[in-house]
Amino acid sequence: MARLTQVAHTQLSDTIQAGDYAIDATAGNGHDTLLLARLVGSAGRVLAIDRQATALSTTQQRLTIASLLDRVILTEGDHANLLSLAPQDWQGHVQAIVFNLGYLPGSDKQIITTAATTRSALDACLQLLKPGGLLSLLIYRGHAGGHDEEVVILDWLETNANHFSSLTWNDGDFPTADSPRLLNGVISI
């Protein structure tokens, strides 16, 4: 089986079309942002958010090398403020929102996403995603706070299950209590 990031990228590729809006709520090293920029084409736009300037710098370099920077809005901020960071006219029009939850690979492992900030961001997703839009969450549970974040996500999903036409979990080939989990949810509202 493919790595969970590849599974997520396949789902995104099947969902996003040229001209769409997409959000990378945790830009990190820019791999998801780069894919989203390719998928939305020249008529679409991507919002890439990260709270670390170094992450945005790496993402900017990756996009510049690929000649795709003009398709992306790079924003330094916390995904907890997703709704206020997204352009107002994107509400209800975003085709996909991507999260890689945990910490920035190769960086300070003390700077992590948290249960509280992620819950706020998930609430915003319901206002931003359009019907048929994809919510993709890659949850890295092996860091301090990772299991707490997963519990909050599961609680949020239970509370908001009526907003989704489908929810799928993928635990990879050899799941453990600390291994990553991928959630893909399609919005029905």
TrEMBL record:
Pfam families: rRNA_methylase. Keywords: Methyltransferase, Transferase. GO terms for molecular function: methyltransferase activity. GO terms for biological process: methylation. InterPro entries: MnmM_MeTrfase (IPR010719), SAM-dependent_MTases_sf (IPR029063). It comes from the Bacteria. PANTHER family: S-ADENOSYL-L-METHIONINE-DEPENDENT METHYLTRANSFERASES SUPERFAMILY PROTEIN, TRNA (MNM(5)S(2)U34)-METHYLTRANSFERASE, CHLOROPLASTIC. This is rRNA methyltransferase. It comes from Cerasicoccus arenae.
